[in-house]
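To assess whether the prediction recovers the assembly geometry, we first specified each molecular entity separately, as shown.
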Amino acid sequence: MNAGRIVIWGTPSQRKGCRPASQSFDEPVLVIPLNIITQDANAHTQMAVSMPVLHIASQSFWVERMNQYVHRMSPSHLRLGVPVLAASLALVACGGNADTEGEPESGGTLTYLEHQPYDTLYPPAAGFYPNGAVINNIADRLLWQDPETLELHPWIATDLPEVNDDATEFTFTIRDDVTYSDGTELTAENVVKNFDLYGQGDSDRTLSVSEAINNYDYGEVIDETTVRFHFTEPAPGFAQAASTINSGLLSDETLDHTQEDFGPGNATTIIGSGPFVVAEEELGTEYTLEAREDYDWAPEEHDHQGPAQIDAVQVIVTPEDSVRIGSLVSGQADVARQIEAQDEEQLENSGASIEAYGTKSVNNGFNFRIGHPILEDLETRQAIIHAVDREAVLENLFTDSYPLATSPLASDALGYSDQSEHYEYDPDRAIELLEEAGWEEGPDGIRERDGERLQLTVNEAHPQPRSAELVTVVAQQLREVGIELELLSGDRAQQNEEAQDPELVQIFHSMVGRADYDVIKSQYHSENRNVLLNGYDEDVTDPELESLLEDIASLPNEADRVVASEQAQQYLAENAYVLPFFEEPQVYGVQPHVLGFETESVARPSFYGVSLDD
Amino acid sequence: MWSYVLRRLGQALLVLLVAFTATFFLLHYLPGDAVIARYGSPQLGLSSAEVAEIRASMGADQPVWTQFWLALTGFLTGNLGYSAQTGASVSSMLTTALPETAALTLTSFLLAVVLAFTIAFTSTFGRFAWLRRVMRALPPLFISIPVFWLAIVLIQIFSFQLGLVPVIGASDLQALVLPSLAISVPIAAPLAQILVSSIDEVRSQPFVSVVRAKGASTNWLLWRNVLGNALLPALTIAGLLFGELIAGAVVTETIFGRSGIGRMTEQAVANRDMPVLQAIVVLSAATFVLINLIVDLLYPVLDPRLRKKVRV
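The predicted structure of the complete assembly is given in tokenized form:
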């Protein structure tokens, strides 16, 4: 509380309407110097005059009470009452609804609620959504992937790359007018330096290789505006990789950062050429993205050009779900990420819109550890799939934002092919299959074979929505046919560790987001995520799957990759290796006055096109 | 006196060493570690070979005794290490977080004391019998209110419904109001309970009747005779309540999205961030020991009868 003044704070959305947008965030909306009130004989009138202002910004009940109070007071009362009054006024003024805002303005500050703080801003590790929210807005990429069509378009590169016949050399021509926010130029040398780090990693600094970049050899500066990247094996996914946030371009100085320098607390030192710059950061709780006035190199295909339309984005971490939802409902925030399915209705009733963006990748689903003795045989795996009523699961736990999966890949992913015939709910067929496989009903209803119980454990996918609830519902359904499904307990570290051991976890619940054909290889190949644990015991259990997946990531021709991807999906479905549940979205709650909110191809937020309307 | 203080400080060092060692080995033998928590995350897509390489480069694959020795000597020389989750130096994390939590816990504690005294006085010297009864029923009610629930209810009512205090974009002062209220309620309860029962006890002693027979007013009796005697047990409890304060900070800082030691703890536990957890445990143990030392030193100040014992 400022001594000598009555200070009235407002919420950010309120302030937007009450003040020039350039004012800093911590400034009060309305400051009444106390000397006017206490020394002026007409003190009542002074206060009374200011009341209509308050009336707009607060709830009328309280203002009414304040008015009565002020009118009853004599000047001496007022002097005594000032501290109390000031305190209560400050509180009273903090309410308010979004619809009480003033005239529309360009600019303004968007308040964005994030679920967790970011943990690193090293682009190859920016897949974690809180990290992506920073990188996607401060770093440009060579290419821009249209989030709707998934087509690639020029951005920092002036054209799509020239690729040699076997996709081992990519040549890009880059713009010569781009600068980083510290004033340094974005040059060909700098682009090569970026990809050399992301493609090779640096084990001395524990900076990892980007998952999106396969078989990277080295980069080469051809001339001032031309760079060429060389690969040891065909890498047809590289063009798309160059458009992901994992390939966000950073200044030379930033690329020399250590792991620690990329960590929390250093966001303002991460220099990109993007439309926003991290201006302020409060460790672990909030940071501010400020628009760059001189930004003039948006992708040509983007609707908006020039600098961003809003002045700043205030990103605030609100880990507690009810607080995030409540803040949005009460108008204290403009956009919130991670709206849980069970909260959607409440938000919609409040007038905010629910925007679900598909992640256009490998679906949320169960992956069977195909080397495990129980899951080795096809019949058992098929039985599990036919015993699960996926529509009931979705109806119980999720909303329309979560479309039913029809293949291991999402229907809007590149290379998708419909496999829904393999995922039909048919409990009778499931029981038949189990009996064919030799599973006989045991004394407690759970089936047994040669003294072994049909018991399986699934991990809790902490980053995925309602994973534990989903497992519980599925476990009930499986019990109907005599299969026991257990949920692995333990925190994230324990789950990550034990999920690698098929003796502890036989079914792995997960998904992965990246809008390229390669994504299916990322998920299933034994040298990548290997969610099926294909080859955990030295020998690869299923070499055929491996070679199908390798084709997707190495065939230089796009049409061939489409065919390979279809084959791989069909193979996964026919062999009952995976049980996909839904096409996992990122769900955002957006206030109606926020226009142009959009996401990149796998649903990380983009603030570039946002404007605020009142 | 000084030898007493020195002896207590010696004991404190031993407590810290034990706390440090116990934390280290407990965390070490839990399945999984900070490396797997961070790099094993499916969102990064690193293979297990790559994770093993990272573990080696961070020295996390060394024998447990080597790691223990390195951590211990690091602590003794003031090097608290680096967060395994973010790479930030633990000492700088602590210096950012400490003032926030200090402000929160201090406000909550003061609020709790005010609340406890109000309850204690009204329930013992209150004018109406019904008021005294209601007040006496409050501590058991308060103590059974979980902090997280209270915090969420307070936010819902005062911020989202009435719009009195913003949660998003609040000033420093505003940001303290609801969280400290939430923490203070369960802290005030045991304090009030002890105060009430010791005030009752003191009041039943013969000297009180004597003072009253000499014509002392209720106020005189309370402030001059009863309170001083009733304070000692409350002081002991107050010292022990520090643990509650820290627990309250973990919950409220997470709910309100405040930065601070509590939030740091929550994150570090979720990520199995050993260096951070070690530092927090040692810091909390040190503060706990210090607060209880101060409480012990205050006894003789409050009660002349205890002064001689301390000198022995």
